[in-house]
Q: What sequence folds into this?
């Protein structure tokens, strides 16, 4: 038994690796950036510091690195570094200048607009070709404004990309320290400081010729003693290829039981704390609902099996099939209409799990408990009736199969009462199908109900998952999926152990 448990526990990390890998890739294939969403929401990040915050947050959430594989160790970064340095020095993208000239002259506009579209894709500027068409139609000043604004965007992106290159740009920047262009030497010293994390803003402000010469000499001396750090052998390149990626860094944090920080809120709240807060809401609903489902469904299943083909059993089956065919969200809308809109009644609360703050603050402890339980009624009814209908059918089928067995006839032949035969000898073996369903119980409790929580304005796990999808909150989504995957594995293990408890013939030795 213990060997089997150990084997199943050892499978959890392997399964978790596969689950997180697939989910991580799928989530990061979604369009949009969590940083942009967070800033655009008005809840997260200050628009006044948007460029500085964007760079900081992209590094904090590892969005400046590739998702799965990092080929930087196998690439030659010299040409890319030099091109970015030229754009930063000239504040101009040569291809953009050529395109603007073509648009002004009205020559080959279709080809020029296709080049604008290519520039937009390369420099991550959304709908740049549409903006160019609009400026072209207006003509005159609009085209000049388009050129200036696009140049500024490309300049800002070039600075960010050169910063993102980090240590890969260092050898080329060191070479540019010998440039005849004073401004190029200033750019080289500034970005060397950023790439090596030795940046001192005061040291690079208002640099005169003497100070610049001192900085260049200092960096050349530094390079003599540190250049070996920027020489990559095959093993180090492979380490970068697999290790310096978003997924590898996420796994490293996960191994330290760190689910990361949410990208949705300005406080950058830990994902675990967010999940825990919403989980408390969903657990109350799901635990009460699950207890009701099992305590009602099993007796109904036993009764249906014992009273098989009687008029009462057929009427009960018809009622349960009607419940099973009615989706829970449809039932929620019907109940909301009947009991909360005045058609015909209006005495059930349907928004949240407590009364408004203006009423809640004046309630004593007993009144608050009663108010909370009263708000739970409709959500729990909707969560319960679907599971009740399906589980009672499984219980009925399992019991019907059991009561036809020879050992049941033997028990009756010994003179045991029908109650003892059914509950002691039959029920235990009929529980096997229900135990199988029990494996999904833990993840369902954590997952919550997205639609029902939306209908009843309940901020549980379903609400959290939906909001995380809308706001591209990658870290929270991954946190929910990781916890769900672990609970699925634990649920399966728990079901396997319960099999052995219910049926002594099952052993794991």
A:
């Amino acid at each position: 038994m213990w060997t089997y448990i150990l084997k199943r526990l050892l499978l959890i990390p392997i399964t978790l690796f596969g689950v997180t890998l697939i989910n991580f890739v799928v989530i990061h294939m979604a369009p949009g950036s969590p940083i942009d969403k967070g800033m655009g929401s008005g809840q997260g990040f200050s628009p006044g510091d948007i460029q500085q915050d964007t760079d900081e947050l992209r590094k904090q959430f590892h969005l400046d690195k590739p998702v799965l594989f990092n080929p930087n160790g196998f690439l030659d970064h010299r040409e890319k570094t030099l091109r970015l340095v030229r754009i930063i020095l000239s504040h101009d993208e040569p291809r953009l200048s050529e395109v603007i000239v073509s648009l002004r002259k009205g020559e080959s506009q279709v080809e020029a607009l296709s080049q604008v579209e290519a520039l937009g894709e390369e420099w991550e500027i959304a709908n740049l070709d549409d903006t160019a068409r609009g400026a072209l139609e207006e003509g005159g000043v609009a085209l000049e404004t388009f050129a200036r604004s696009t140049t500024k965007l490309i300049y800002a992106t070039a600075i960010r990309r050169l910063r993102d290159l980090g240590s890969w740009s260092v050898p080329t920047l060191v070479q540019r320290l010998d440039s005849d262009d004073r401004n190029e030497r200033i750019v080289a010293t500034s970005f060397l400081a950023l790439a090596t994390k030795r940046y001192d803003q005061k040291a690079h402000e208002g640099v005169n010729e003497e100070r610049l010469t001192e900085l260049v000499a200092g960096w050349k001396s530094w390079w003599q003693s540190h250049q070996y750090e920027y020489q990559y052998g095959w093993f180090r390149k492979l380490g970068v290829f697999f290790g310096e990626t978003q997924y590898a860094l996420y796994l490293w944090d996960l191994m330290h039981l760190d689910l990361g920080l949410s990208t949705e809120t300005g406080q950058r709240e830990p994902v675990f704390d967010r999940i825990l807060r919403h989980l408390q809401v969903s657990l109350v609903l799901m635990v009460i609902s699950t207890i009701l489902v099992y305590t009602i469904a099993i007796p109904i299943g036993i009764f249906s099996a014992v009273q098989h083909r009687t008029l009462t059993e057929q009427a009960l089956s018809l009622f349960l099939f009607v419940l099973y065919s009615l989706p829970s969200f449809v039932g929620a809308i019907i109940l909301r209409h009947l009991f909360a809109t005045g058609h015909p009644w209006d005495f059930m609360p349907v928004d949240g799990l407590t009364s408004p703050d203006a009423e809640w603050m004046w309630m004593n402890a007993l009144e608050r408990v009663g108010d909370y339980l009263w708000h739970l009624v409709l959500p729990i009814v909707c969560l319960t009736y679907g599971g009740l209908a399906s589980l009672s059918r499984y219980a009925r089928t399992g019991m019907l199969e059991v009561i036809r067995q020879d050992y049941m006839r033997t028990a009756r032949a010994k003179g045991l009462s029908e109650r003892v035969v059914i509950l002691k000898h039959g029920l235990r073996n009929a529980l096997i199908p229900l135990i199988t369903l029990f494996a999904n119980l833990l993840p369902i409790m954590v997952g919550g109900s997205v639609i029902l929580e939306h209908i009843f304005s309940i901020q549980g796990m379903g609400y959290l998952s939906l909001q995380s999808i809308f706001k591209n909150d990658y870290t929270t989504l991954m946190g929910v999926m990781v916890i769900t995957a672990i609970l699925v594995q634990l649920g399966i293990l728990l079901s396997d152990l319960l099999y052995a408890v219910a049926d002594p013939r099952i052993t794991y030795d």
Remarks:
- The longest helix spans residues 365-403.
